[in-house]
């Protein structure tokens, strides 16, 4: 091997912040169902703590031997609404506490799957689970929740959309920071390793290892070398870089799966930013040629980036899955935060961007007095983009109680801060109050 | 087991000797080596091969970390599969 290649690889890791964002073990809980809730929770705790007992140890070993940082070790489980439905419990907060206890015991960062899938309608477990979300997120710190309210096959459940607007407000009333742990999806995927939206789908194997890669810094650095060249060169450069990044994900996933004796599922080809300098998706868009993210051309540049990442990544690994696209979480991307604070990027442009990348209006702080039905309207818009375009979309907004546009909400510690963004104040109340279901779309006559 | 060892830091007398001695003590065979000075900074890359029965990866890593601290050098050891995965089709 050439010295240059060794140097390049080391530089990608040490200077350009290339890392494995997450190793997520999916664990099925179907064999934990019991009509006695306490027994079910004991089975869940036992299954989680035995299935994933070596997860953190193996991830740390791989990090040390290969010299690649593995940032998060996580678990996703079967949607709890399905597991708890057979029990006699009237609320499911205790299930979240069991998940938390197991996650703490195992030393994993987050555990996802406090989830309900209600794209077409509610079963009894879904209602109880959704009602439990505000308290469940308040009494736990590692549990993540998601609710799927629409799909291309079944349309959009507007009753659920209306309810989730109220749930987001209820969570914020307790503590706005807890809203970080809830994602409202359309077309949720079953093998997503990223939080807060990860859950272990019903079609998955009993246990599986999924890997989420990262690397916005590596892509930006590669593009710095092709300044002023045609857009075709930009696309090719991103593809080649994505290939290398994904190969690393494939290697780590294979090694982890082998050492844990668990099948390897997928690599999620997502460019996931962090608030650290040089780890920003917005900076890639600016490197492509925009004065600022949010400028006209942003959607096109993002579409190009997203597509090139997939094209490069697909060839580099055996199975691609999860969300696989560039993430645009505002509060987790240093340049997005600057752009929003300076008024260079607004929610309407972000919404347009979600039509061409994963995953949606993500980590956006909005004024605390935003009505529930307005949040429902935002959820409905995102769901419509996903359902019509046959892609995953989501909403993770944080109503900053007692705060207004121009201020910032502090998430504490590594999560940084988010500027509060203005939301259109015209009310969608009568639309949201109608309830019912938006029918599934026709997939002919595409326009 | 194959690994790539990189040594970066302020140039000084005896780096190659010290690193080679440590690898030899660990029963790690050097299969390739290159060394240069980049902007006054010493940079060396070695490929090492050894039997894991004789030396565990963690033991080799600890010994090289200790040496790096002693000589004020940044010494990394990483399994070679990583480089192959990223750089080879």
From TrEMBL, chain A:
Name of one Pfam family that matches: DUF711
Gene3D superfamilies per UniProt: 3.20.70.20
CDD domains membership: RNR_PFL_like_DUF711
Taxonomic superkingdom: Bacteria
HAMAP family (alphabetical): UPF0210 (MF_01221)
Subunit: Homodimer.
Membership in a protein family: Belongs to the UPF0210 family.
Record PANTHER family: UPF0210 PROTEIN MJ1665, UPF0210 PROTEIN SPR0218
Protein name according to UniProt: UPF0210 protein TY91_02965
From TrEMBL, chain B:
Family in the record: Belongs to the UPF0237 family.
Domain annotation ACT: ranges: 4-78
SUPFAM superfamilies found in the cross-reference section: ACT-like (SSF55021)
Protein name per the record: UPF0237 protein TY91_02960
InterPro entries registered for this protein in UniProt: ACT-like_dom_sf, ACT_dom, UPF0237/GcvR_regulator, UPF0237_ACT
Coiled-coil features, chain-numbered ranges: none
Organism: Secundilactobacillus collinoides (Lactobacillus collinoides)
CDD domains: ACT_1ZPV (cd04872)
Matches recorded under Pfam families: ACT_6
């Amino acid at each position: 091997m050439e010295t240059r290649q060794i140097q390049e690889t080391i530089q990608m890791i040490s200077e350009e912040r290339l890392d494995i964002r997450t190793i997520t073990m999916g664990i099925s809980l179907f064999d934990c169902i019991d009509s006695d809730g306490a027994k079910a929770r004991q089975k869940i705790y036992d299954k989680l703590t035995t299935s994933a007992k070596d997860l953190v140890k193996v991830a740390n070993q791989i990090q040390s031997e290969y010299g690649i940082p593995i940032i998060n070790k996580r678990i996703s489980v079967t949607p709890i609404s399905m597991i708890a439905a057979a029990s006699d419990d009237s609320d499911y907060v205790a299930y979240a506490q069991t998940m938390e206890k197991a996650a703490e015991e195992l030393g994993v960062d987050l555990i996802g799957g406090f989830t309900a899938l209600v794209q077409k309608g509610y079963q009894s477990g879904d209602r109880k689970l959704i009602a439990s979300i505000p308290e469940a997120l308040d009494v736990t710190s590692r549990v993540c929740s998601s609710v799927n309210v629409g799909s291309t096959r079944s349309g959009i459940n507007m009753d659920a959309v209306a309810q989730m607007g109220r749930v987001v407000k209820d969570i914020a009333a307790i503590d706005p920071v807890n809203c970080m742990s809830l994602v409202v999806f359309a077309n949720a995927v079953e093998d997503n390793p990223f939080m807060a939206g990860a859950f272990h789908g019903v079609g998955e194997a009993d246990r599986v290892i999924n890997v989420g890669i990262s690397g916005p810094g590596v892509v930006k650095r590669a593009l710095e070398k092709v300044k002023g060249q045609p857009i075709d060169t930009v696309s090719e450069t991103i593809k080649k870089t994505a290939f290398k990044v994904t190969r690393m994900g494939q290697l780590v996933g294979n090694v982890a799966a082998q050492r844990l004796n668990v099948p390897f599922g997928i690599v999620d080809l997502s460019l996931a930013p962090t608030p650290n300098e040089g780890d920003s998706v917005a900076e890639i868009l600016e490197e492509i040629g925009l004065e600022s993210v949010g400028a006209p051309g942003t959607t096109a540049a993002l579409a190009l980036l997203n597509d090139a990442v997939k094209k490069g990544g697909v060839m580099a690994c055996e199975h691609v899955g999860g969300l696989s696209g560039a993430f645009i979480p505002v509060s987790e991307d240093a340049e997005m935060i600057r752009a929003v604070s300076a008024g260079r990027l607004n929610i309407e442009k972000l919404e347009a961007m979600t039509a061409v990348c994963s995953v949606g209006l993500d980590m956006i702080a909005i004024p605390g007095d935003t009505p529930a039905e307005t949040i429902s309207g935002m959820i409905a818009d995102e769901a419509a983009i996903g359902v019509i375009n046959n892609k995953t979309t989501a909403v993770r907004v944080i109503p900053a109680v007692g705060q207004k546009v121009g201020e910032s909400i502090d998430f504490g510690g590594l999560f940084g801060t988010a500027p509060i963004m203005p939301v259109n104040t015209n009310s969608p109340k009568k639309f949201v109050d109608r309830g019912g279901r938006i029918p599934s779309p026709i997939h002919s006559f595409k326009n | 087991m194959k690994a790539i060892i990189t040594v970066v830091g302020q140039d000084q007398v005896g780096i190659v000797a010290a690193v080679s001695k440590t690898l030899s003590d660990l029963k790690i065979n050097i299969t390739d080596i290159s060394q240069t000075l980049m902007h006054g900074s010493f940079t060396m890359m070695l490929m090492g091969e050894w039997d894991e029965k004789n030396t565990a990866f963690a033991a080799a890593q600890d010994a090289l970390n200790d040496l790096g601290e002693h000589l004020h050098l940044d010494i990394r050891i990483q399994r070679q599969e990583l480089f192959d995965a990223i750089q080879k089709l």
